[in-house]
Amino acid sequence: MDLALRYAGVPREERARRVPELLERVGLHNVAHRRIWQISGGQQQRVAIARALASDNPLLLLDEPFAALDALTRERLQEDLRLVSERTGRTSVFVTHSVEEAVFLGSRVVVLTKRPGRIALDLDIPLPRTGLEPDELRALPEYAALRATVSQAVRAAAD
């Protein structure tokens, strides 16, 4: 984590402050002293997410970042990623096989077909990005309708 911040040009004093904050953000404050090979695969995935969040790049590329996580941690990190995007204005390109995740995190969802990969669906997600708690957002009828649309496209693209 420190290395990612060092490459981003963050001064040593600020790195010492930000590393614990980033580890706390991904729920790993208690493993800061361990080496990467001493933690589980899910914890390693969270470290990778924290490293990605450490830099101030305007674009965040994520390929199945929550796949190895338990459901509660996945949901918490999805909410955190949504807040980070909202606060920083970062654009995220997020690859996932989860319809729920795509609709929750996306402002636009693109579904690809099997080989050769072609666009089966390109859908704007016009859900509110602010003012709602995650559970309120997930309870909206529009949310359910968008999930159904994306789910149908995924099933059709798999055929």
Succession of helices and strands: HHHEHEHEEHH
Which stretches of 5+ consecutive residues score pLDDT under 50?
none
Largest sheet features: 2 strands, parallel
- Side by side, the strands of the main sheet go 1-2
Question: How many distinct beta strands?
Answer: 4
Beta-strand content bin: 5-15%
Arithmetic mean pLDDT? 88
**Shape, please?**
globular
Distance between the termini: 42 Å
Number of helices: 7
Helix proportion: 40-55%
How does this structure look, described?
The chain is 52% helix and 13% strand. It has 159 residues and is α+β, with helices and mostly antiparallel strands. Strands 1-2 form a two-stranded parallel sheet. Strands 3-4 form a two-stranded antiparallel ribbon. Helix 2 crosses helix 3 (41-54) and helix 5 crosses helix 7 (141-158). It is globular, with a radius of gyration of 17 Å. The model has no long low-confidence stretch (mean pLDDT 88). Residues 14-67 form the ABC transporter domain. GO terms for molecular function: ATP binding. This is ABC transporter ATP-binding protein. Keywords: ATP-binding, Nucleotide-binding, Transport.
Short key terms for the protein model shown above:
159 residues; alpha+beta; two-stranded parallel ribbon; 4 strands; ABC_transporter-like_ATP-bd; ATP binding
Question: What's a concise summary of this model?
Answer:
The chain is about 50% helix and about 15% strand.
Write the layout of secondary structure elements.
Elements: H1 2-7, H2 12-25, H3 41-54, E1 59-63, H4 71-88, E2 91-95, H5 99-105, E3 108-112, E4 119-124, H6 134-138, H7 141-158
Parallel strand pairs: 1-2
Antiparallel strand pairs: 3-4
Helix pairs in contact: 2-3, 5-7
